Every structure is written in structure tokens, then in C-alpha cells.
Amino acid sequence: MDKTVASHGRVDVRDVHIRFHTKGQEFEAVRAANVHVRPGEFVSLIGPSGCGKSTLLNAVAGFLKPSSGQVLLDGQPITGPGSDRGVVFQQYSLFPWMTVRANVEFGLRMKGASASEREAQARTLLGLAGLLSFENHYPDQLSGGMKQRVGIVRALATSPQVLLMDEPFGALDSQTRVVMQEILTNMWQRLRISVLFITHDIDEAVFLSDRIYVMTARPGRIKAELAVPLPRPRTPEMTATPEFAAMVRQIKGLIREESIAAMGGELSDGGLAGLCAEVGPRGVGQLV
Ligand SMILES: Nc1ncnc2c1ncn2[C@@H]1O[C@H](COP(=O)(O)OP(=O)(O)OP(=O)(O)O)[C@@H](O)[C@H]1O
């Protein structure tokens, strides 16, 4: 379990276009996206609401097929969901009638692992997530942060090559969220699994990631690819460094342009400046 160098888990999204057909109309969600996750790398996708982040992640999960282009895992085309990819969503998806440990063991049971294998794997991962003393609790006895930790542990239990996380901390309060980021970065540093992570939170993306892809407003294209210059292991103190602040500022600027574009023609930069003069600086922050 304690891997230092990952040899599998390379994700290649090559020139992917995703179009939906609704009510007889074609709708382009993702255009010509190229995203790569190297084995053991932590990569985030960030962009304005509705730009196609979840759509792209769903293509990697195998929940939907791109209209064109390729999605590969370790060089093999992804044709559907598989146990080589663990998925964590914002909504907790635990079985309420099962204990924490039974939830974690579920995927292993499906794969035919023996009771002793299941128990050993579940207890190792629950220990890493600081949840061992809750193994016999039921989900409704846990806080939101704990439920999401169980969700992550459950996704990791079958030893996937890649962890796909769609706004996993989006439903948590800001303090819990920060603690969850630390727990996740510590677990990732220990396991070195490849991660593709979606977030709206720029600080979160910078703190966790090796690289960040910034997407444009719809149809989602890759606007920028940025390497995070912070060393590993990451510590909370790093969020107070000039490097961290500079990266956050850079991404904020990139997303701001796209958020304005996503809000349509009625808001130009000039129009926004007029609005800011009326509502004061707090109004600007809310728009970004
Ligand atoms: N199955 C679908 N059928 C039709 N349209 C869809 C479908 N799934 C997503 N869309 C549309 O595709 C666009 C991209 O959606 P997606 O959920 O991927 O964006 P997102 O960047 O993850 O958004 P958010 O940050 O708000 O979660 C949206 O306009 C959405 O309404």
C-alpha cells in the first residue's frame, strides 16, 4: 500500500470534444480538450461554472463517451466504468444501512476478496484517514467531513490506478474543508495514486496539485496549464508564502476573464468597472 513511485495510472485525454443532444439541438460542452495526468500526479481542473469540468471527468470515469477524441488509461482506451478508477462526488454516496467498515469493504467484496483481505485493507486505509475508531459506526452517526473521508477511503479500497474527485469538499464548511485538504494531501503523499480533481476553490487547487488546468467558459477548452511551484510535502504554512499568493492571483485572473465571458454580453470589463464603483469592492469579489 505504501507506494513511493507510481508506475501506473497515466490518464490521457486527447483532443476530446463532447456534444450533447437535447430537444433536437446539439450542445457543445467540451471542445478540443487535452489533459494529461502522469502516474502518481495530482492534477486539478478549474474553471467557471458550467464549463464542462464534470463532463470531462465523467468521460475519464467512463460514464460517458466523447463525441470525438480519445480518453486513455495507461495507453488503453476507456470504454466504460471500471475498478481501475475510483470516483468521489460532492454528495456522500455511502450505504446508510452499512457500517463504515462494511461500506469500505463493499467494492472489495464485489471483487471477491477474502474476509481477511477486506478487513486488512479497510482497516489500513481507515487508519490513514484517522477513522479506525469509527469503523463500526453508521454513516448517520458521522459528520460531513467524516462521511467524505469514508467516501475517499471507499474509493481507494479496491486499489484503483486513478482517483477521480468531483468537488469532493464542496458541501463542507470552510474549516472542515481545510482539514480535509490536509488529510487528502497526506494520504496522497503516502499512496502516490494519480488524482484528477475538480474544484471551484483556487486555494484548494494550488494547495493540493502538481499541475492545474484552467478551462474556458462553455464550450470548455483548456485555457492554461500551470505547474504549481510549491515543494512536497505540502504544509498549511505554504498557503502564506508569496509563491502561493502569486499562483492564486494568476488563476483568479484567468478565471475572472472566463466568468465574465460566461455571464454573457451584458457584462464587459468596462461595465463591470462601473458596477464596482456603485457597489464597492465586495461586489467585485463575489463575481470572481
Ligand atoms: N447529460 C447532459 N445532457 C445535456 N447537457 C449536459 C449534460 N451534462 C452536462 N450538460 C451541460 O454541459 C455543460 C457543462 O456541464 P458540467 O456539469 O460538466 O460543468 P461544470 O464545469 O462541471 O459545472 P459546475 O462547476 O457548475 O459543476 C452545462 O451547460 C451542462 O448543463
From TrEMBL:
Q: Answer yes or no on keyword Cell membrane.
A: yes
Q: Which Gene3D superfamilies match?
A: P-loop containing nucleotide triphosphate hydrolases
Checking PROSITE patterns in the record gives: ABC_TRANSPORTER_1 (PS00211), ABC_TRANSPORTER_2 (PS50893)
What is the official name of this protein in its record?
Answer: NitT/TauT family transport system ATP-binding protein
- Indicate the segments forming the ABC transporter domain, all copies: 13-242
Query: Which is a Pfam family this sequence falls into?
Result: ABC_tran
| Family to which the UniProt record says this protein belongs | Belongs to the ABC transporter superfamily.
- Could you tell me which species this protein originates from? Pelomonas aquatica
Keywords in alphabetical order? ATP-binding, Cell membrane, Membrane, Nucleotide-binding, Transport
How far does the signal peptide extend, from start to end residue? none
Q: Which SMART domains match?
A: AAA (SM00382)
Q: Which GO terms describe its molecular function?
A: ATP binding
Q: Which PANTHER family match?
A: ALIPHATIC SULFONATES IMPORT ATP-BINDING PROTEIN SSUB, TAURINE IMPORT ATP-BINDING PROTEIN-RELATED
The UniProt entry, under CDD domains, shows: ABC_NrtD_SsuB_transporters
